[in-house]
Protein: Carboxymuconolactone decarboxylase family protein
Organism: Pseudooceanicola albus
Amino acid sequence: MTETAIERGRRLSEQFSPGMEATLEARYGHLLPDMASSVVSYVYGQHYARPGLALRDRYLATIAALAAQGDQTAAQLKINIAAGLKAGLAQREIAEVIWQMALYGGLPASINALNTSIAVFSEQDALIG
Amino acid sequence: MTETAIERGRRLSEQFSPGMEATLEARYGHLLPDMASSVVSYVYGQHYARPGLALRDRYLATIAALAAQGDQTAAQLKINIAAGLKAGLAQREIAEVIWQMALYGGLPASINALNTSIAVFSEQDALIG
Amino acid sequence: MTETAIERGRRLSEQFSPGMEATLEARYGHLLPDMASSVVSYVYGQHYARPGLALRDRYLATIAALAAQGDQTAAQLKINIAAGLKAGLAQREIAEVIWQMALYGGLPASINALNTSIAVFSEQDALIG
Amino acid sequence: MTETAIERGRRLSEQFSPGMEATLEARYGHLLPDMASSVVSYVYGQHYARPGLALRDRYLATIAALAAQGDQTAAQLKINIAAGLKAGLAQREIAEVIWQMALYGGLPASINALNTSIAVFSEQDALIG
Amino acid sequence: MTETAIERGRRLSEQFSPGMEATLEARYGHLLPDMASSVVSYVYGQHYARPGLALRDRYLATIAALAAQGDQTAAQLKINIAAGLKAGLAQREIAEVIWQMALYGGLPASINALNTSIAVFSEQDALIG
Amino acid sequence: MTETAIERGRRLSEQFSPGMEATLEARYGHLLPDMASSVVSYVYGQHYARPGLALRDRYLATIAALAAQGDQTAAQLKINIAAGLKAGLAQREIAEVIWQMALYGGLPASINALNTSIAVFSEQDALIG
């Protein structure tokens, strides 16, 4: 039996960003009914779970785009760097891709995203260390 | 003996985007002396040639960022899709990463970039076919 | 019986932008299976069909956002202006909201979007006249 | 007798964002003489006070555009959400329009703007409650 | 007797971009009454005519910003490059400032703006030659 | 004997933003070997040190672009305002150029950048006073 979009989405989001649907529901559910499940179903079930591109590559691409968009997506960049590490990206690969974005999103965007990545790496290293 | 940045950059740009330095020099050299070699040395010699991230991944990241930035980078997106195919990306992978960017750069940016990718794929398929 | 997201989405997209799912499928289906239905289900079924904000207001908001984002979304702005007129917006209201966007997206973005709106209005007036 | 732009602007800005001209003058007047009155005259007198689009709709459009532009306009988004509530927008309508902007400005921009709206709503509810 | 904003604006816009107010009125006046005079009064009368920064510097800054914003402002970049040349900027200075914007708006934006500048320079040189 | 790009870059960056290369190396060197010298060589050696546009004008252009890009480049705007003052820009000129950017990057971006400039001016005045 085929998984539905929401089932695929929940499986994936719980694996890579555990607690996301519950957090969205708690924060926004009173204002926007069904928004949390809609995010999980669409973002994870209908994008990240698609075949045709490895999950590790999907996180690499997201990190690149958020880095190029600049510091205002720092909160989401943190979430996607953490998930990208789980999906198999190395810290060095993440730093390299962010630094390359200086070519496309400008130096300030890239430098600010590097600072965000270093913050995530420190938290991760503290957990492991 | 270690290659210099300009040597590395020329080797790489000639391999993936042949004729780029000559084109830049012909178009912009009369207004901006040294600009062409500066691009090749910096972009290819000091970014794309860096260790720590595979070239195929670098093109994937660039395609993602340009797709999220929207249609005004269509000319550069074409160049980087063509180079990305040479670096080992599949057409499907490129289409998938562009479509995923609807989440971060908005639907219009993603749709416009898909149109650009289809134009490049058609040219490539015509060459091969 | 409750409509599903894809049912709601199809009903709405056929009413306001007829032929959209078929067009998306024809253009992108060979590269991105399920993308067309995913757009209709998410954009129309899970956003535009939501209660809590009138459809006319949703199109007004989309026109505002696309105008502020600048000329690279011209194709999508045309589609949403045409749909907005069907949803009850007056030409004058659309022109006013685009012009107001000069305050937030800058003058060039606003002027370019005005040009796009005038093109849509001319087509519509030609149909009616 | 017709109001001038600065008269219309002052009437409107005092009604919806009381104290704005004085605040601008106090903060920026020493560096930029006449800037405060220029803002009030242009933004409120020559945009928001224009006929052809209801004030409630103008605030809806501004909230949409600022949400799509992302978190760096959070301070201005707060001001315009507060003014929009006075102009007749419901909290739910504001939340809906911001959430819809995920389609055009990307998910991170929309989520960050939702957080800003919730902060404004809490302040308002505290005043009323 | 002091000039009013609209008088200053008309004097300046006629000198640097002759015919602008009439063009705006002809294109947009039927949809947006008073918009043309509002642009001239605000943009030229209340910004470009301000003391404290030389007009040549104001055009340099505008060219920089439009170059960094990317190709979708090409029409406005052309107008401001032509005006900047009248205000005393050299072609070389304009090319240099656009090229520098590669650092802040990304390479694609800068390259596209260089192409726009070369188109304006060619027209100007044809007139002079 | 001609200076190399890295020599020119170091001379310039030390003069206008002293300690920058060391700071970059300390922060990012462990993740991105050679990044610090690459920035100094490219940004300062191959852009700011170019002939054809005065250094004071280059900083003016950078301040304009960063102001138009909005608040997320605040850290870099501070650095470039401080450097621009050393390169001969007056506080008033900087405030004027930032305010003018309201026309191109929108009002919120301009207002936020004015706040950043005032913070830098206060620090500078405290040092001098």
Observations:
- The CA atoms of residues 9 and 45 of chain C lie 4 Å apart.
